[in-house]
Automatic annotation (TrEMBL):
<feature type="binding site">
    <location>
        <position position="174"/>
    </location>
    <ligand>
        <name>Fe-coproporphyrin III</name>
    </ligand>
</feature>
<dbReference type="InterPro" id="IPR033659">
    <property type="entry name" value="Ferrochelatase_N"/>
</dbReference>
<keyword id="KW-0350">Heme biosynthesis</keyword>
<dbReference type="Pfam" id="PF00762">
    <property type="entry name" value="Ferrochelatase"/>
</dbReference>
<keyword id="KW-0408">Iron</keyword>
<dbReference type="InterPro" id="IPR001015">
    <property type="entry name" value="Ferrochelatase"/>
</dbReference>
<feature type="binding site">
    <location>
        <position position="105"/>
    </location>
    <ligand>
        <name>Fe-coproporphyrin III</name>
    </ligand>
</feature>
<keyword id="KW-0627">Porphyrin biosynthesis</keyword>
<dbReference type="GO" id="GO:0006783">
    <property type="term" value="P:heme biosynthetic process"/>
</dbReference>
<dbReference type="GO" id="GO:0046872">
    <property type="term" value="F:metal ion binding"/>
</dbReference>
<keyword id="KW-0479">Metal-binding</keyword>
<comment type="function">
    <text>Involved in coproporphyrin-dependent heme b biosynthesis. Catalyzes the insertion of ferrous iron into coproporphyrin III to form Fe-coproporphyrin III.</text>
</comment>
<comment type="pathway">
    <text>Porphyrin-containing compound metabolism; protoheme biosynthesis.</text>
</comment>
<feature type="binding site">
    <location>
        <position position="332"/>
    </location>
    <ligand>
        <name>Fe(2+)</name>
    </ligand>
</feature>
<feature type="region of interest" description="Disordered">
    <location>
        <begin position="1"/>
        <end position="28"/>
    </location>
</feature>
<keyword id="KW-0963">Cytoplasm</keyword>
<comment type="similarity">
    <text>Belongs to the ferrochelatase family.</text>
</comment>
Amino acid sequence: MAAVNLGSTGSDAAGATRGRKPAPAASAPCAAGAIVPGATPAAQGGAEHVTEPVAYDAILLAGFGGPEGQDDVIPFLRNVTSGRGIPDERLEEVAHHYRHFGGISPINEQNRVLKAALEVELASRGVDLPVLWGNRNWDPYLNDALGEAKAAGYTKLIAIATSAYSSYSSCRQYREDFADALEDTQLGDVIEIDKVRQFFDHPGFVTPFTEGVRDGIAGLLAADPDLARGDIEVLFATHSIPSTDAAKSGPAERGFGEGGAYAAQHRAVAEVVMRDAGATDVPWQLVYQSRSGPPSMPWLEPDINDAIAELPALGRKAVVIVPLGFVSDHMEVLWDLDNEALETAGEHSLAAVRVPTPGTHPAYVAGLVDLVLERVNGTPVAERPAVTELGPWYDVCRPGCCENVRLGFRPALAGIAP
């Protein structure tokens, strides 16, 4: 049977009505004279950094979404791949990762916990901003969150996408889904949505990885007195993406070269992590994982398992795996790293440790609130923290940023069209 987009409403085991993934938007609302669709007046002019304070009504926590039972797995994967015509038989090849964990992705529960942690942090600072939560691909959907905003009278939202780097799938696709949700709910003339900057080099995101690398190296050395620091390789792992999309990530005028802004941002953060962890004498490399798509399509390499297999020939005896591209322990971490990569390390007689993702680390939670308050307060650029020379990144995405080569430019918010 052909794949079916989950455009119809379903029900869960308890009989509650589920939401649905919105269809792609035909257009995005744009105020007269504005060059940024769907934005608050402060951001409509398209400045790289918005330094005018904005009285937001609520925070929109935007997640990827994930299945929460075996019956959800294929419908969820149809949502993720909608428009690509992938039959269920091929989706089932990926579904076994979820089925291994009872059909439950950890990502929804992680976002529930993150939402609660943000609410505690906001309250501790006396910031009266409610947190709404919506997903791109599963309940609760972004259009459900916008309906909740309308019911509560919230018209100015500041969005946090649970993805730190620049690429189509990690930034622009979230912005497209904001446009989809606005059109689906017909709230384009009621609700305005801005988005915090990409936070790959915000200290709140980077600190947990620095601690993890420091602790990971120390743990390996403590476990084996014969192990030297040069015997350890640190592998910074992130999701692979098509090379053509990587080349289009970030503004073209920045000239990031092969891998675009996506690879450049990861490399820059990895260098900072190694420096701040006191590990500049330990070898490291950037590797990729979780690739999909036809073999004929080039994706960013090397694959983490291939890199691990080559380490013994380099004289390495241990490996520290750093999930640098991920904010929490979702499926690509639990399966591709904790299962496949650690198994590959064992097959090559390498001691191995995987360090934690930011999750709800206090520095990460505080950093996300800091990013919101940058826009609330209109913080000057010079006062915005960034640990690499690439940042602080843009509040408003630049024109032509992060194009999907296969699909072209679809309507999107929080950036200058296209």
